[in-house]
Amino acid sequence: MKIKSQKDFFAGLMFLLMGIAFGWGATNYTIGEGARMGPGYFPLVLGVLLAAIGLFVIFESLVVETEDGEKIGSIAWRPLGFIIGANVIFGIMIGGIPKIGLPAMGLIAGIYALTFVASLAADTFKAKEVAILATVLAVLSYCAFILLLKLQFPVWPTFLTR
């Protein structure tokens, strides 16, 4: 069988592999059942759904004709680096690095850092728009995670709260 859309085929393959990985990882936890869900229930369901979506997309890539075969282009390393770097910086900002004495900077600073670094992946950078986006994300994240879900992690830099 011939691949008629490379983009769809490899996207479906990625979904399938991630779904299998999530499902497999979920088996290390108690699954439970629909009425009494364990900690592994959601990752298992998510994994099954991802795998099913992946299989569907792979099937479509083999059946549906495309004009040029939708070839995969070169990898955009610069945006990829900024997006991955933004997530790493967010993790460091939330938890700090105690081994080297870097304190946790908290949720708000982490969201601002994440937003500004991730926005560097685009071709254009508009500081005013990024600042507005970061502020909206910070306020919504604070409301969702701290006020509504009552999660316990630092909101502000540790040197300000002690």
From TrEMBL:
Swiss-Prot/TrEMBL keywords: Membrane, Transmembrane, Transmembrane helix
Any Pfam family matching the protein: TctB
Keyword Ribosomal protein: no
Transmembrane segments: 41-63, 75-94, 100-118, 130-153
Domain DUF1468: 10-154
InterPro entries (UniProt xref): DUF1468 (IPR009936)
Protein name: Tripartite tricarboxylate transporter TctB family protein
